Amino acid sequence: IRLLIDKIEYRAKNGFEGEILASGFQPLDDKIMGFFLKNQSVIAARPGVGKTTVAVNILANMAIRKNVPSLMISIEMDREAIITKLFASESGLPFKKLLTGELNNEDWELFVTVGSKVADAPLYIDDISCSLHEIISSIRKAVNNFGVKFVVIDYLQIIEPDEDRLQRNEQIGKCTRTFMRLAKQLNIAILVVSQLNRDSAKTEREPYLSDLKGSGDIEQDAALVVLLHSNMNPSDEQLDVRDIDFIIAKNRNGGSLGKVKMTLRGPIHRIEPYVPIANWHLPKAENKQSHYEKE
Question: 163, 192 in Cβ contact below 8 A?
Answer without folding.
Answer: no
